[in-house]
Amino acid sequence: xxxxxxxxxxxxxxxxxxxxxxxxxxxxxxxxxxxxxxxxxxxxxxxxxxxxxxxxxxxxxxxxxxxxxxxxxxxxxxxxxxxxxxxxxxxxxxxxxxxxxxxxxxxxxxxxxxxxxxxxxxxxxxxxxxxxxxxxxxxxxxxxxxxxxxxxxxxxxxxxxxxxxxxxxxxxxxxxxxxxxxxxxxxxxxxxxxxxxxxxxxxxxxxxxxxxxxxxxxxxxxxxxxxxxxxxxxxx
Length: 236
Fold this sequence. Notes:
Elements: H1 9-37, E1 47-52, E2 55-58, E3 74-76, E4 82-84, H2 92-101, E5 107-110, H3 114-122, H4 136-141, E6 147-148, H5 157-171, E7 178-181, E8 185-190, H6 193-212, H7 222-232
Parallel strand pairs: 6-7
Antiparallel strand pairs: 1-2, 1-5, 2-3, 3-4, 5-8, 7-8
Keywords: Lyase, Metal-binding
Domain Class II aldolase/adducin N-terminal: 26-211
InterPro entries: Aldolase_class_II_sugar_metab, Aldolase_II/adducin_N, Aldolase_II/adducin_N_sf
């Protein structure tokens, strides 16, 4: 690439990182405000991160997602060392490992959404699929969601369990977009904020439906799932 007069390759790279970080700051704050306003998060529960070039930006530990300040978000470099902002969330390792395991993952959201945490307390459909394929949009927009056994918040062993699940599903061509942490809630991811939000919203609403109907409805039949695969390339 031809350098512009008066610039260096390093300067251009630094400017690109700066722009990506600045955009990520605003997206994280926007998403946090939206989640809080709609009751998906409460108090200081949950965290949000975005990949910006080879850096990561993540909400600080114990931050209230509805009242984030852009300049206080934690900025972490490619080596995982924090270089700006308040102390990073204790789930930083999990967020970074998800983005490494899934090259399409650039925005990660973890909430303690009420109905999904309640689902882990009441009993999930199965360890491999916390919810049955109840609706076509759940199948198309969310897909398989495994349960990750309980570990304390921030336990680095969770990252090993989640990335192993990501790898297994990638091998079976049913890529994951989310997992459910027992008693702690969902972790969802996507290439951008809008995609990750859509997964979270569909996942939480399906859990709500499942619990409201006392877990009685039958899953979609196999022929319906086949139709969703063939028509919409659903990964189920």
